Amino acid sequence: MKQWEEYRIPAEEVRRISRIPITCLEDQTSVFSRMALEMAEKIEDNNRQGKRTVFIIPFGPTGQYPVFVDLVGTRRISLKKVWLITMDDWLDSDGGLVGLDNIHSLRRKMNQVLYSKIDKGLVMPEEQRIYPDPGWLERIPDLIEALGGVDICFAGFGINGHLGFNEPADVSPEEFAKLPTRVVRISETTRTIKASTGVNGAMEDIPFYGITVGMREMLCADKVSVYCFRDWHSGAIRRAGCGTVSSGFPASLLQNHPNAAIVCSPNAIAPCY
Questions:
Q1: Residue 230 located in a structural domain
Q2: Fewest beta carbons within 10 Å, which of 70, 79, 164, 262?
Q3: Global model pTM greater than 0.85
Q4: Domain that holds residue 112
């Protein structure tokens, strides 16, 4: 296939040839509901078996979290044996996590959209709400090993294919797949997207560095579930599933995962032009 030819492929053809299985739902709301249901049902299944549940989760998208909170409450799902690992966060100019009063703090935002909304009798202890920490890079890899692995890594694609803040890099796919939890410089592409979707174009306000759970930790998950709903996901889905596996577009590495899947809305798989 010629370079970027996949951008014009019809949606049904993308689903047929993609090396990552794709499920297209009826609309964006259905995508968020499916993600919340996948989270809830896996926890319920593990609870029935007396097993712990370990997820790597994104802050964005967030549309699934109100649905998940409702499911936990109506079904009375105990989260006491659940560990949620948020996959990234922003750093300040001194290399530490941005403060909880900072508009970009994902620790604050996760508490606002998720943890504070769950019935106190059902929510997991605070020590099971995990975030990457630049002062303790080994924590998440060590924790995953101690817990026996990750059940599901939930994710969305960046426009440049990043997962978490695993930005494109000039290394082999094999080397990229082994990158651990670490501090990273945020690409100008990611900073621009963040400025346009989060702070109405205030580029100077976007941090230059972040911390991310590594590709190594994400790819070790038993399953990787990617949820896409934006118009520009059309290009990302095509490059991830139909393009060459390359560290220049990190999401393409999911082609090598034995149990990765994409769930999307129709706008997110329509031809780009």
A1: yes
A2: 70
A3: yes
A4: 5-268
CATH number of the domain within which 108 lies: 3.40.50.1360
Taking CB atoms within 8 Å and a gap of at least 24, the contacts of 113-120 are 113/62, 113/65, 113/66, 114/65, 114/68, 114/69, 117/65, 117/66, 117/69, 118/69, 118/72, 118/73, 118/79, 119/72, 119/73
Taking the alpha carbons at both ends of the chain, their separation in whole angstroms is 17
Residue 218 lies in a domain: yes
| Model confidence pLDDT, tens digit, residues 22-47 | 999 999 999 999 999 999 999 999 99
Number of domains in the chain: 1
SS (H, E, C) 130-174: ECCCCCCCCHHHHHHHHHCCCCEEEECCCCCCCECCECCCCCCHH
Q: In degrees rounded to 5, what are phi and psi of residue 264?
A: -145, 165
